[in-house]
């Protein structure tokens, strides 16, 4: 969520929101900019979300400019990885379909059409999800409950009021709170009460206007501030103020704040508006500085804007970042106008940042770069979008989007990477020097989506360019992606292609790009029976990654060792690699990585004859796969099916389902302790607790031999809903067919 100062007032509005969410599933807070919609939504979230088992998820849309990426941003906030190959909006809907949560969409006004389509789909397909939106206009959907957010209550002009009476007004309490932040001794007294009341009235109770004005109390008394406001703002009458008039009041306050800034502060205000989301000091120095604003002045200038509440300060670990509220950013954008120099410097900064991150990825700085790139993702999108919108700049987008394959993968954003690459490829000429690598990179991301046809098409285009524009690096990269394609096709050619790619990168001294071909070679050649060659490739991969202090490929190498040893070699070595891989993978806070490594631990437990632990781990992995928007049936189908079948056969369908369900129900902390063998395998509950009452009804009807259509007729639901319930039961119990549901249901009684 955006960094916010303390929340003041709004109890009545918060109660209205909570009451509305008890009755309807879409509540939209509307109001002018700066009236406090976001702050109210954030303050209301904890209590409003308490009735949702899944809590609340906050999605800030102000940083997004392309409505097509709205589902991607929601997926990101939900922790989903975009790896299934299906439209990302469908992946999101599938996850939310059985979730009970409050989805908060903040600042919808610039993406109203995209928000309307997305919210309509959520409301139609996800019956337990409610949406709280903030926007300057309503979404216009059926059933939408619109709650206009008024300005804060202000004191009556005609009545003299004591300090105690004044602080009952939310506007006065906000002014006092923010004034105390700049003048710690500030309080409302008999001496300043009239001036404080006048300030709140003059600012129409608009929270952002009050906050901007309060910053001036560092150098002005309340009476001086009130006098200056009376000269700056429109003359107010006793008539009720309309929204446009309040917007003019805010605009006048912003204009006044701007005029009170120094020349350097005015320049920085305008130029910093180019950033999406937040930014760091080094970025401001590179993007905002020039001859008119030297880099050595940027720090002092930022401090000046912080003092004036134009910028907000937020701490991210050991780093301070800066953010501008949307109404102030919009003002900065207006000031910037059509000047492209700052936007180009912003793009060039992202170009340099991603180039450096790419060069240092395979090193001990990998985790630092992962964290930094996550924070800069909104700026990355802005830079790519500008490059594709500005004539003659698409080549930069092609270059930038072709970098950092591991980051896109780790973020679960291969689909977004494909979108940028597709747009950049369409906007650049066929003879562009970066096109061959961009084509094979686009194919790589398609393969990570299991989209082999698109990957094949892009690889064919890359092959056709090879005769015109090829070098050793481009050739090795193309060969590597061909090898991955053959691996997915389960073709023996994957071995020779991966080996050739690894040798090509090795000859160039490119250790980072050698690592994934080593994984492909090691895992594929094991299935051809050459275990020693498999071990050699994976040992080299592990050694190289350890020598460079990186974690991404180290975790992958350990997973590869499990993949080989659990079925073809040393089960003890597999167990050690599985545990180490889980620990290393956790450093990335990636649910997708958790799924892989929990899966590997389940294979090992089955191989060691610990079938109850294996079934529990399969259940824990199923939750992680589902949360990541992926499936083991695609990612690791052969070992997954083999070991899951072995575990079920050893335990029997009923006991397997019990332990599987117990694993699915584990919290993240309990999953970690189970994976590290710090907890005993949990005793399963009887019956599994995560089947809903409706799913129990469906399971019992399956046991009676009814088809999905017959179940739909019996329960008066749609056939599609019946299909969904059956699929949910299969997933929750770890089953593959209806017969297993029937067998399980006949041995179980539905909970009361």
Overall 3D form = globular
The biggest beta sheet reads: 5 strands, parallel
Round the mean pLDDT to the nearest integer and report it.
Answer: 89
The level-1 CATH class of the domain at 11-148: Alpha Beta
Tell me the span between the first and last alpha carbons. Answer: 40 Å
Structural class: mainly alpha
Number of strands: 8
Number of helices: 39
Question: What is the CATH homologous superfamily assignment of the domain at 11-148?
Answer: P-loop containing nucleotide triphosphate hydrolases
> What ranges have pLDDT less than 50 throughout 5 or more consecutive residues?
235-240
The Rg value, from CA coordinates, equals 29 Å
Beta-strand percent range: 5-15%
> Could you say what the CATH architecture of the domain at 11-148 is?
3-Layer(aba) Sandwich
What percentage of residues falls in helices of 4 or more residues?
A: 55-70%
Provide structural commentary.
Helix 8 runs parallel beside helix 10. The strands form two sheets. This protein has a five-stranded parallel beta sheet with strand order 2-3-4-1-5, sandwiched between helices. A three-stranded antiparallel beta sheet has the order 6-8-7. The model is unreliable at 235-240 (pLDDT under 50). Among the domains are: 11-148, P-loop containing nucleotide triphosphate hydrolases (Rossmann fold, 3-Layer(aba) Sandwich), CATH 3.40.50.300; 163-258, no CATH class; 261-339, Winged helix-like DNA-binding domain superfamily/Winged helix DNA-binding domain (Arc Repressor Mutant, subunit A), CATH 1.10.10; 346-470, Serine Threonine Protein Phosphatase 5, Tetratricopeptide repeat (Alpha Horseshoe), CATH 1.25.40.10; 693-746, Arc Repressor Mutant, subunit A (Orthogonal Bundle). It is mainly alpha-helical and 752 residues long. Helix content is 63%, strand content 5%. The chain is built from 39 helices and eight strands.
